[in-house]
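ok trying again, last paste got cut off:
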Amino acid sequence: MIITDVVCPFCGCLCDDLVIEVENDEIKTVRNACKLGASKFLKHKKNRKKKPIIRENGNEKEVDFDEAYDYAVKLLLNSTRCLIYGLSNTSNEAIEYAVKIAELLRGYIDNTSTVCHGPSVVSYQTVGYPSCTLGDVKNRADLIIYWGCNPLNAHPRHLSRYSLYPRGLFTERGFLDRKLIVIDVRETDTAKIATKFLRIEPNKDYELISAMRAILNGLEIKQEKIAGVRIEEIYEVIDMMKSCKFGILFFGMGLTQTYGRDRTIDNAISLVIDLNKYTKFSIMMMRGHYNVTGANQVLAWLTGFPYAVDFSRGYPRYNPGETSAVDVLARREVDSAIIVAADPISNFPRESIKHLLSIPYINIDPFYNLSARYAKIYIPTKIVGIEVEGTAYRMDNIPIRLRKVIENNELPSDEEVLKNIYERLIENEDIIEKRYCVRSAE
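nice, full thing came through this time. structure:
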């Protein structure tokens, strides 16, 4: 059986043109995908478990799913402050239940943007986000800028589907109608194919952006170099920006996590706003996990805030740097956690990992990753976009429905697991309310 128009659940591109050949419920071939996306489909059985695992007294025990749900609820009822983290590799439907659990338990909920594009999200709340869709880029953009990112390695089909190479309504000749500028601290694979490459000194992005804005606003720069870039090259790039018909600035972690963080992104957005005095220009984050954008969106729908949400007062509060997962763990403010579709032990700072390992936590994930190996209870689930349907948001904030290509009747979905836990917690709502009344009195 050939299944067409399959959406790839790997990165924020959410490529929707994959062709999957399935025979006897086995994936045989994957066409149109990059190596990263094809690997997720072809190796979906690797590193999987079929039963939940409970760890007690150093021993592991397989249990059925009902027992796992009851055990998870008991763990949560015995805690006073819970953290829910992850959510960027699952469906919007599952994220909704995660928010409901966090609100019910008056805990924290955070997604992986807190350790990647969190500063970018803070920035566009401050100065706006003059963006567009990837369809606009494909059909209209004649100048592409990649700043602090390397899509040929991280988002391999981004250039071929959305930016440099595709033929669009007003870019009928594809790359012949476009110019590519890459700005980075090293010559990446993407930089090697650029029309113009600016190699800047590390952590000097803010300086370069400020110089560009000064030139755009009629000021003269007398220095020979800014951020390690010759002033002549900066003027050349500014001329390319001003003379294009439609420009787009894509930026990645190389810009987001440089010195200044959200202030640097404020400046980059302001640069795009300045350019709109001359031509049409937009900006867009290069999102990593396939539904990290959806995690921000769903939290914003339900709480008013995109990540790092605190329900401890009975209503949502938001203060990144205080209420984000890394910080509440480092300060040892939580005594339980639910990790959903993420692996914080592989990438969090040491102090945060130390506390996470010292508390009982629930790990809900299709794959038996490093965080699952240390969880008090691990609950395996279906893979969204392969074994179960679900909704996700592309990096340009467009919602896309992911398809199911094979059956997996042995495992529940993330949504089913979180729904079961939530419904069991609701049955004990009086215990939860009593606990918080006692805490308030104290």
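cool. The chain has a mean pLDDT of 95. DSSP finds 17 helices and 21 strands in the chain.
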